[in-house]
Structure formats: structure tokens, C-alpha cells
Amino acid sequence: MRSWLAQYEMRSASDLGEALDLLSRWPGEWTPFAGGTDLMVLLEAGKLPRRRFVDLWRINELRGIAASADSVRIGALATYTDLLTDPIIAAEFPLVAAAARETGAVAIQNRGTVGGNIANASPAADLPPALLVYGAALELASSRGRRHVAYESFHFGYKRMDLAADELIVGVTLPRERRAQGERGAGWQHRETYRKVGTRRAQAISKICFAASVDLDGGVVRDIRIALGSVAPTVVRARSAEESVRNQPIGSQTIAAARLALRADISPIDDIRSTADYRLRVAGNLLEELLS
Amino acid sequence: MPPVPAIGRAIPRREGVAKVTGRARYVDDLSLPGMLHGLTVRSPVPRGIIRAVHYGAGVPWDEITVVTAADIPGRNVVALILDDQPYLAADRINHAEEPILLLAHADKQLLEEARRLVTFDIEPLPAVFTLDDALSGAPIIWGENNLFKSYFVGRGDVDAAFADAPIVVEGVYETGAQEQLYIEPNGMLAVAGDASGVTVWGSMQCPYYIHKAIAGLFAMPLERIRVVQMETGGGFGGKEEYPSIIAGHAALLAWKSGRPVKMIYDRAEDMVATTKRHPSRTRHRTAVSRDGTLLGMDIDFMIDGGAYCTLSPVVLSRGTIHASGPYFCPNIRIRGRAVATNLPPHGAFRGFGAPQSIFALERHMDRVAAAIGLQPDELRRRNFIRPGQVSAVGQVMADRVDMDAILDRALDMADYHQKRTRFAAANVAAGRTRKGIGFATFMHGAGFTGSGEDHLASIVSVEATADGTVRVLSASTEIGQGTNTIFSQIAADALGVDVEAIEIAQPDTAVVPNSGPTVASRTCMVVGKLLETACRNLRAALTDSGHLASDGDLRQACRAYVRERGPLRASAHYQPNEAARWDDERYQGDAYGSYAWAAYVAEVTVDLVTFETRIDDFVAVQEVGRVIHPVLATGQIEGGVAQAIGWALYEDVVWREGRMANSQMTNYIMPTSVDLPPIRVHFEEVPYQHGPAGAKGIGELPMDGPAPAIANAIAHATGVDVRRVPFTPEMLAHLVEAAGA
User: Which of A18, A52, A70, A121 has the smallest count of CB within 10 Å of its CB?
Assistant: First the structure.
């Protein structure tokens, strides 16, 4: 352990009001600490610049996964294990379940939280691409009140996000209505894909993370949602690629157009895990595989 | 009735219960009254001159022990082959993370803050990070020409062979660095003083290497130095020479502070600062007849030694001797060079140069086969070295080697020929995956090279105890590979007792004789043989004294002897093999007492979407002499294959300005259990007359074959020519793209 613990301070909030009160009284001074699976790595390495933390772990109102007729609400403190054991997530949001299964080891899955994963804002995070595909909304709270934002517009730069210093992510809402839409003809086909490319098959940090959902009607693309991780400063929705294939018949021309359009959606770089060239090529291959 | 022989049976690991119940004591489990923690402040730059050191405010510096090069009581050199590496940089820095000063305090975390507060004024000097820059001498960073060592070995007339050759195949092959990744990082605890001398306890392979190094560091006679091995969580060569440094550092802090000092590296420090496998580059030119007979081999083998010599000449020697593989060729020329760069020194790692040169050769052999339109196995069969034939360094093969039979068995177990045909046919169809199967044939010499064992002059002792058990006294360490267990089996059978009657003494230089380092696949074959002899000598002593009848109980005899006459100890000293010849000047002769021989087959699937390679099946067939312990021996092979798969496919040291940039297990990717295939191990057992019960060396062999077998399988699957370890998805993406364009 390379940190000097005497320099660090942690307060444990017993309820949401207490946590929000601390955040609002000294904006930017106290850093929320949920499962700690990202912060503890930095502490161990002696690279944790923030010194004061508010522990959220005991705030029970931030736990739980609850379904209503038209949506599922995931509490910010829901862990990957919670996601993996929830029947509605398994049945209706398989990309979320797949992401939870591919994240870390069991110990990390028991501690890591949905809200923490989003607020840590790593472009290599495994869960956010799945949330983007399902059109997630975030619920943010502060002592000033609550507001909802579309997850797609939440991150706007590397580790930059639409979250004020006194705000906490308290929940994530996934709409169910598109799951229920029926009236599909015989030629209707629905596909969902989650691929984490991390070179080794477990305990990996993504080089590319790809999540997608596509509806085909007689071989023509109708609804399509694609999101990627580790290929831009934030996780991204591939709007250009989606647009290029919507209402187009799948085939080699469509695939070529989609691959080209994808270049406008992502901006991969060389880093210690992989190369820009590899990420671009494999992202295109994964898109091609989805549409083949 | 004599007990059932222990050799050949899978008896329980002797220290197994202590390990799984947590009773086993590792160095970090030790604590002494008044103990301080120590740490190392390292260079932030790869090369330069230290102009000033600053101790920033924020910690009580008056409470912190600080050791610099000026505090060293003896010589500031790590005693090894050459005396070029300092314990602490005095003014010159030659690699990133080089130790500059040491700190100790009772509060380990405060010490971390102190480390952050030490800053240096360093005048930077140009540094060398590549083999090419090192060879071009721009700039000269070591000696006169950046060369630690060169070898020229060979036989026949290579130039004439090439002049007449119908076919010549050339190729350049490279391998990257690899971290040993033992589960327990390096650690030492030391006490030191004028009255007490120096004692260190720690994680290590070679207690007597540390013994010698500390004596020089403190200018103290050897008898005032004591080195004790604690339970050790793996070594793989990474705890061969490096522990001399951390032991010296802990002892210097203990000396200056007057308190016991413990230094334990965390994983990040262990990865960024300690030794790794030497990167290599090998150029092959091979002259071959149209029917596949090797006519001439011209091999240029080069390794990157890093900033100091350490063990590079010896690694180079083994890599050079293994560079021509298990083949006979009348005309061979091998040039070996170990060059200096400003990377942290590379060091011992399982295989010790052989995996590097064997990768090059075995990938090249498949290319030679393709060039003349021969099946890869057929080319090998036409050239396997046979008993009585002569190796590149002039060793007449005395082993009853039968590489044909080993290869037959391996290919049969892997269903190689059927799959070779089936995969090739299936790969023609479009699809997202390609399948391939490939193999490598190779050998690994056991024990020190040439006259090395003569110079080591190892000794093993055994002593009878008052309760009738027999204690084994050797400096050979248990590092997870099974020393305690196989020594118990060898001793038990030589004495004619149950293994429970054997006790293995903790390696402690105050107690055990110098049986040499725990390296070079020598523990079983060389030290085990000495143990067998020492046990026979003990038995003979008891017989001669009249305490042991021919069918008598050895334990009773020991008890009676000790009660009546006092201590009884028997020893065995290494005796040079009079028939073996070795010329150190010309580097010619019997390079190794024996070799283990092997054929490994890998079956792979390459995903053309992600360019990831998955190994579906792995067959490892080897001849290692008599197998002492079937489970441990199989474990050695499985572990070595897994480690070599890591090197081949995953483990990529990313260097930035001479520093490892990915020194975490999250970004230095080693395979997990789900990434590994079933590893099917088969032993052919041909007893070796100079090994205990006929055993040879085994530990390093499995590191040699997997990388080329996998490369050949990938080439079979994809048609791309893989020539650099590791075969990352990024590299394969590039190669597949280039091949398609």
C-alpha cells in the first residue's frame, strides 16, 4: 500500500440526506465512495489525489432493482451481483446481465456498483455500453432537488459529465416499452450482442467493448442501437453507423457503408492496452458480424 | 520388511499441509522487536548523472534512516559474474528504477510519503533501448562496444555448404521480455551489526549467492554472514540473482539504523524494477538439400541484457548451445551476443535463453519445410540427431535419444495428421474462425553448462538424529516445485525407510552445506544424485559401525548410533564425470550431462473478428529419465506450458523510455485458468545412469516448446508468418491485413 492513510478521511453517511448535505455544504471537497472498486486501486498505488470521502454503502434507499409496467429502476448502489441475480434484467436486458458477468471477479461483482461505475466515467467500463443501447436515463439528486438526464448526454469528455459537485447519481431507469412492442410479422428478427474484447477471457479491462441491439424486418434494418467502450474519451453511441443502415437491407454494401460511418462515431487511440488501428478494425469487424 | 519404494509414487507434498493451513511462514509473516520497514528510492530516468538529492518537507526526516552509496561499508557491487552493478547508484544512473537510496522507518505508510518527497537533480544522458542502437554503439553505454559477451561456436565448413546448397532459407525471429510473476513478491528481513554480523531471512532460490554478495557488500568474512530461506512462493529464475540486491538493501538499512529491517516489494515495484526474461533476436540462414537434409546452419543469436551484465553471459551460453536444436547438421556456425541497453537488467527466467533460440529455430524449421514442399514432421525426422552423432559444440550424443518415437507419440496423441488435413480443408470456406495445428521438437540440457558443475563442487549432507529420523542438509530450496518431496523420496529409497523418517532442514547457511543454486533444472538430477550418494554413505557408516544389519531397521540403528557415539553425518561431494570433456576456451565438448527430449503439439482457433488466438488442445510428450513423482512432474510440465502460453500469446512488456509502462496485473496480461487448454502430458521414461534412480532435469523444458508450436499452428490456421513473440491480436490483425492486401 503506497498511500499514507493518515492523510485520508472518510465519513459514513447513514442516509441520503446526510450524504447530500455534506456534498452541498462543501462542494467538491467530499468524494462519494460506493463500492470502492476503482478508488481502492488508486489508494493501493498511492495515486488517489482526493483526500476526503463520503461512504455511501449504508444508504439502503439507493439499493434494489424495482420494475414498474413501463420501466425498471436500478438503484445506484445495486451491485453487479444484484444485476446478475435479477430475473427481469436477465429476461429483458440481457446485455446488462452480460456486462455484469464480464466485469471483474466475483469479489468485484459483489462490491462494484452501477452508480459508481457510471460516475467513475472510465471509457473502458463494461456496463455503460449496455445502458446506452437500452436508452437508460439517470436520476440525479442534490439537496436542491432531483432531475433526470438521458444517459447518452451524460458524459461529454474524458471523465467529464453532467453532474454538479453537490449531486449524486441515485438511480438508473431502463424503459421497458420497446421490449413489449408486438405486432411483428413473420419476417421480424431481433438480435442483441455483447462482446468484450479483452484478450484474456476473464479479469480483463476492455480493449473494445461492443453492445448492440438490432431489429430486422425481412432482412431490412429497422431499429438499431450500437454502443461502444474503449474507443473514444467516453463510451459512445454509434449514431452515424446506426443511421447509415437504418431502413437498409443488410448485405455487403450496407456493411461497407456502416463500417465507414463508424469512423465518425469513434476516435480510438494507442495506449498500453492496445492500438488505435486494432480498435478501429475490430470495432468494424464486430459491426460487420452484427449485420451478417 | 523394507518399505514400499517412494520413488514413482505420488506421495503428499511434504510442506503441503503447512501451506494450505496457513502455518507455512513466509518472510512477510516474520516480525522482530523494534523492526523497521525499508523501501527503495529509484531513478526516474533511464540514464544520467545525479547532481543533487532533495528531501522535501512533510515527514519527520530525523526519524527516518537514510542510506546512500556513501554508507556502504564494503564494496558497492553486486557480486555475480562481473562487478559492474552497484547496490546503490552513487552518481551514474544506467537504467530507470535503478536504486539510488534507501529509507527505513517503523511506519510503513509514512515511509511511502517520504519516498514521494525525495527528488533528484539529474543531468540526463542519451540512452539506448534497442538491440540495433546498442550494436551501432550510439552511444556507448557499457564497456568498449556495448557487448557483455560473444560466443562463436560451430563445426564443419559452413561457407562451403552454402556455396553448394540448392536451397537456402532465411528468417529473423524475435521474442519479448517476460515477467516471472511468482505469486509472492520479493522480500527480505535483515539484522546487521558489528557484534552480530549480518543475518537475512527471505524469499529466494539461492542462499549461497546472497551469502557471497553480502560478504562483499560489508567486507565481512563469510562466517559472519547467515542467510535463511523462508517459505518461498515461486521463483522461476526471478529469485536467482535479484534477492542478493534486496537482501543487501535490507542489511544496509539494518546496519545503519541498528534495528531489524524488513523490505517487501509490492507487485508494482517487483514488476517495474526486477529482472525479466531477455528479449532476443535470432537470424537463421539454412542450407538444405531438395530431399530435406540440413546441409548448413548459420545462426546469429542476440539477447538484450539490460544495463548490467548480471547473468547474461550464462543465459547467452545456454541459448547459443540450444540454437541448433535436436538436429544433426555437419556444418553449423552460431554467433551469440549479449548486448547492453539502458533497460533494467534482464535475468534468469525458466529456460534461461533456450526458449528464445528454440522459438526461432522451430518456427524456422516449418518455413524450411514449406520452402521445399515437405511436411513439417518429415523435415524434422530427416534431421533428428541420433545416438553417436555430434552436436554443434562437438558433444557426441550419449543419451539413448529416440526423437522419432517421441514425435510419433505426440502426433498420435494430438491426432495431428488427420486434423492437419481436416483443418486445411475447412479453412478454405469463409467464416469467422480458422483452425490450425502445429508442433515443435526440442531438447533441454540439465544442470550447469560445460564445466559449471565441476566449479560449483556441490555438497549434500545427511545426519542421523536422536529420534531415528534422517535430516537432509542442502541449500537447494523448495520454491513450489517440489524439492522437499522428491528429496524425501530419494532419501527414503536410498536409506530403505518410509518418507516419514526423512526430515528436510530449512536452508540456512549456518546449518546446510552449499549444494549450489536452485536453478538450471539441476535440483533433482545433480543435487538429488548427491543426496542419494550421501544416504548410501550414511547407511554404509551404520553398517560398518555394526549398528545396522543387512535387514535391520535404519531408524533403530540411527537412534542407537547417536545414543552411543554422538552425531552421525554423511556427505557426498560432486565428482566430475571423468568421461565428460569440456573446453571453456573453444566452447567445445560435452555441454550437458544429459538432455530432456520433447515434442509438443498445439491446436488453435484464430478468431478473424478479434484476431484472438485460443488454444483448444495441447499435447506435451517428453523423455525426462525416470519420473520421481508423477503428480509433481506433471505439474511442472503443465505449469511450464501455461507460463509459455502466457509468453506466446498474452504477456507483452510495454516499454516507455526504458521503463515498464504496464507494471500491473490489470494491464500486463497473463492468462487465467479459463484461457488455458487441457494440457495432456505424457512421459517416456529412459533411466539416466548419473541421475537419482535414473531421473534427469525437468523444470525448464516445458518453457521451450509451446511458443513455436503455437506459432506454427497459427501459421497453419491463417497462412500468416508469425515471427515475433508474443502473438498479440494487434500483431495478427496487422499480419492478416497485410496478407489479404
Answer: A70
Of B605, B716, B704, B672, residue with least CA distance to B175: B704
Residue A182 in any domain: the answer is no
- Condensed to tens digits (0 to 9), the pLDDT of residues B406-416 reads 999 999 999 99
- Note whether B731 contacts A: Cβ–Cβ < 8 A: no
CA–CA min distance A274, chain B (Å): 7
B570 Cβ contact list (under 8 Å, min separation 6): B461, B462, B463, B534, B535, B537, B538, B540, B541
Based on the fold, state whether residues A50 and A67 are members of the same structural domain: no
Q: In terms of domains, do A160 and A267 share one?
A: no
Three-state SS string across B116-182, please? HHEEEEEEECCCCCCHHHHHHCCCCCCCCCCEEEEEEEEECCHHHHHHHCCEEEEEEEEECCCCCCC
Question: Fold for domain B31-125+181-273?
Answer: Aldehyde Oxidoreductase; domain 4 (3.30.365)
Rounded to the nearest 10°, the torsion over CA B216, B218, B221, B223 is: -110
Q: Containing domain of residue A116, as a range?
A: 62-177
- Only one residue has cell 461512504, namely A55
Q: What is the dihedral of CA B73, B74, B75, B80, to 10 degrees?
A: -120
Residues of B in contact with A203 (CB under 8 A): 666, 672
- Inspect the interface and report whether the beta carbons of A199 and B609 lie closer than 8 Å: no
Return the number of other C-beta atoms located less than 10 Å from residue B106's C-beta. 14
- Write out the E strands in chain A: 9-12, 31-33, 52-55, 65-67, 71-75, 137-142, 145-150, 155-157, 160-161, 168-175, 188-197, 208-217, 220-229, 236-237
Q: What is the pLDDT of residues A133-152, one digit of tens each?
A: 999 999 999 999 999 999 99
| Topology classification of domain B280-449+587-740 | Aldehyde Oxidoreductase; domain 4 (3.30.365)
Specify whether the CB–CB gap between B157 and B331 falls below 8 A: yes
Which CATH number does the domain housing residue A140 bear?
Answer: 3.30.465.10
Ranges of H-type helices in B646-705: 701-704
Give tens-digit pLDDT for B250-261: 999 999 999 999
ipTM of the predicted structure? 0.95
Identify which of B613, B642, B174 has the alpha carbon closest to the alpha carbon of residue B436: B613
Q: Is A221 on the interface with B (CB under 8 A)?
A: no
Using the Cα atoms of residue A89, residue A90, residue A91 and residue A95 in order, give the sign of their dihedral. positive
A287 with A208, same domain? yes
- The number of distinct structural domains making up chain A is 3
Q: Domain locations in chain B? A: 16-25+452-573, 31-125+181-273, 280-449+587-740
Q: Angle at Cα B591 formed by Cα B324 and Cα B686, nearest 5°? A: 85
Q: Omega before B139 cis (within 30°)?
A: yes
| Peptide bond before residue A32 is cis, with ω within 30 degrees of 0 | no
Contacts of B729 in chain A (CB under 8 A): 197, 199, 207, 274, 278, 282
Is B671 in the A-facing interface, judged by CB distances under 8 Å?
A: yes
Element (H, E) at B303: strand B294-306
CATH architecture of B16-25+452-573: 2-Layer Sandwich (3.30)
Per-residue pLDDT of chain A (292 residues; tens, 9 = 90+): 899 999 999 999 999 999 999 999 999 999 999 999 999 999 999 999 999 999 999 999 999 999 999 999 999 999 999 999 999 999 999 999 999 999 999 999 999 999 999 999 999 999 999 999 999 999 999 999 999 999 999 999 999 999 999 999 999 999 996 554 556 778 899 999 999 999 899 999 999 999 999 999 999 999 999 999 999 999 999 999 999 999 999 999 999 999 999 999 999 999 999 999 999 999 999 999 999 9
Q: Would you call A120 an interface residue with chain B, using a CB distance cutoff of 8 Å?
A: no
Q: Which single residue is written with the C-alpha cell 520497514?
A: B37
Query: Is A185 contained in some domain?
Result: no
Round to whole Å and give the CA distance between B281 and B364: 13
